[in-house]
Design brief:
This protein is an all-alpha fold and 289 residues long. The protein is built from 14 helices and no strands.
């Protein structure tokens, strides 16, 4: 009796052999489920639901405006200070929420990581999409306030807004990928990221104009300050939504668009490095969790 050997099915592949951002983009259904699940978990039992996406930035803005703008007098020094403040706040909130939620995205989905194989990048990607959902209400409020202050959008201003948005999104996603992977092995990173939220808020020209750094700090501090990609992004957003409603005598950081191009390139490098680190470390996620 002749035994016919069983041929390996070429269509079979080892578990975990597929992944990466390309596979994440193909898994649109899973990505949509994760986003919906995170939103439902966040607003479970809430009367306002997504309405809190409008309340949160409004309260955040009111506190900063009355403390910094009214009590400390910044409203007298910066023309249309409410729009100036909120145009930076909307963008920084997007960055901080992206970084904060992405850092916890893998550890927060530990049961799925341990039991089911799917592209691990789905978790930080879902966190970024949830942050974008929360970003839209703030952007709508900003647009309405800018129009009331005299803003009339032009192609140049819309391009500046898109430029600043791209820097923040790419930079935040790249850092989120890196931090989410490292956080699996060193949980103290969550506390470091929480503390960094305070530093980030004050490290950009959102509450004060960048000229305060130029006036009160040594030249090398100003160089380091302007090298921060978030400074370029916030300045571009202010150029887009705030500047056209003013007298037009405000001086933005020198070579703004050149610095912004460098910032976008740095953000892309951070994204590539973050994704490479995530891909390298994800093979041990299930074991560590």
């Amino acid at each position: 009796m002749t035994v016919t050997p069983i041929r390996a099915d070429e269509g079979l592949r080892a578990p975990g052999g597929a992944g990466g951002l390309r596979q994440t983009l193909r898994e649109k259904y899973l990505l949509r489920l994760l986003v919906r699940r995170e939103l439902r978990a966040r607003y479970k039992g809430s009367l306002l639901g997504l309405g809190w996406s409008y309340v949160r930035p409004a309260v955040h803005f009111a506190v900063y405006f009355y403390v910094i703008g009214i009590f400390l007098g910044m409203d007298d020094r910066v023309e249309d200070f409410p729009v100036y403040l909120f145009s930076g706040m909307v963008l920084i909130n997007l960055f901080t929420e992206t970084l904060h939620s992405a850092t916890r995205s893998v550890t927060g989905n530990a049961p799925l990581v341990r039991k089911v194989f799917l592209p691990r990048e789905l978790f930080p990607a879902a966190s970024v999409l949830v942050s974008l959902v929360h970003f839209l209400p703030g952007l709508m409020i900003l647009s309405g306030g800018a129009v009331a202050a005299g803003w009339r959008p032009s192609p140049a201003e819309l391009g500046a807004a898109a430029f600043g948005f791209a820097i923040v999104l790419v930079f935040g996603f790249g850092l989120g990928l890196l931090c989410s992977a490292v956080n699996v092995f060193f949980r103290d990173l969550e506390q470091v990221v929480d503390i960094s939220m305070i530093v980030i808020t004050w490290s950009v020209p959102m509450i004060y104009p960048w000229t305060h750094v130029q006036t009160h700090a040594p030249g090398w501090v100003l160089d380091v300050y302007l090298a921060n990609p978030l400074v370029s992004a916030v300045s571009l957003f202010q150029r887009a939504f705030w500047f056209s409603g003013t007298r037009g005598d405000f001086a933005f950081p020198p070579h703004l668009y050149a610095h912004a191009a460098v910032s976008l390139a740095v953000s892309v490098l951070v994204f590539v490095a973050g994704h490479a680190a995530f891909s390298r470390m994800q093979t041990r996620f299930a074991q560590e969790l």
